[in-house]
């Protein structure tokens, strides 16, 4: 299995991204609906923050990630506070370890930009979801180029239409300066989902934190920063 960019920053990521219920995740969970009694996959689960929240809400939760270092942290948390979460070390774009049509829902919180093969990831989601199952994901809004203080999904000195992998140089983008990100247009996301029978049924654009409107990030607060979407898996067999 190929290495993961997050292996080198596992300690940094675990220390800085542990809030179990930030506003965007709250929106993701709202789109998912009641988790209790459902089998839910957390795609690109990292250190298990979202996976564990799903388990706390009553889901049978499974997390999958390419980073063995982050999964070690997730499993350590599970050992310290057992919630019945299972973790799978696999590439989201080729997770053959996951059985076909074995999940009621899949969530991916800010993970799609870290997955190089979006088409492969969408194929995995379609394959592991039961017909009628939901795929709910959050991303930085593809239209958000960022500002001097807040990094966006593409370099501010380039074009929205220039897709590809890039590494931020914005000093406030502590994570993206280390692991980079894949920028894709909104149409690329929607068309890729459609090719894999994932019908977009709802979207939300959560507001940035209220504090941004009164500090140096007020320019970013006027723009679409986050996007949350819900899809349903069609049955075209």
TrEMBL record:
Its keywords, alphabetically, are: Methyltransferase, Transferase
Which one Pfam family would you cite for this protein?
Methyltransf_11
Q: Boundaries of each Methyltransferase type domain copy?
A: 41-137
Q: Which InterPro entries match?
A: Methyltransf_11, SAM-dependent_MTases_sf
Q: Does the keyword Oxidoreductase apply?
A: no
Q: Which GO terms describe its molecular function?
A: methyltransferase activity
Q: Which domain of life is it from?
A: Bacteria
Tell me the SUPFAM superfamilies matching this sequence.
S-adenosyl-L-methionine-dependent methyltransferases
One of its GO biological process terms is: methylation
- PANTHER family reported for this sequence: TRANS-ACONITATE 2-METHYLTRANSFERASE, TRANS-ACONITATE 2-METHYLTRANSFERASE-RELATED
Designated name of the protein: Class I SAM-dependent methyltransferase
Query: What species is given as this protein's source?
Result: Paractinoplanes lichenicola
């Amino acid at each position: 299995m190929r290495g993961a960019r997050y292996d080198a920053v596992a300690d940094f990521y675990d220390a800085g991204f542990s809030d179990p219920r930030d506003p965007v995740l709250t929106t993701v969970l709202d789109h998912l609906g009641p988790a209790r009694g459902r089998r839910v996959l957390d795609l690109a689960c990292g250190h298990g923050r979202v996976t564990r929240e799903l388990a706390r809400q009553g889901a049978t939760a499974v997390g999958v990630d390419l980073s063995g270092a982050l999964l070690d942290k997730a499993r350590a948390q599970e050992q310290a506070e057992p919630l019945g979460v299972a973790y799978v070390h696999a590439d989201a774009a080729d997770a053959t370890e996951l059985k076909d049509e074995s999940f009621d829902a899949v969530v991916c919180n800010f993970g799609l930009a870290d997955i190089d093969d979006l088409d492969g990831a969408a194929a995995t989601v379609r394959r592991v979801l039961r017909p009628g199952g939901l795929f709910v994901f959050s991303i930085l809004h593809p239209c958000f180029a960022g500002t001097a203080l807040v990094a966006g999904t593409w370099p501010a000195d380039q074009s929205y239409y220039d897709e590809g992998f890039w590494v931020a140089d914005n000093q406030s983008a502590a994570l993206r300066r280390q692991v980079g990100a894949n920028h894709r247009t909104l149409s690329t996301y929607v068309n890729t989902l459609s090719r894999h029978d994932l019908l977009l049924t709802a979207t939300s654009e959560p507001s940035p934190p209220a504090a941004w409107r009164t500090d140096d990030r007020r320019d970013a607060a006027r723009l679409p920063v986050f996007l949350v979407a819900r899809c349903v898996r069609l049955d075209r067999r």
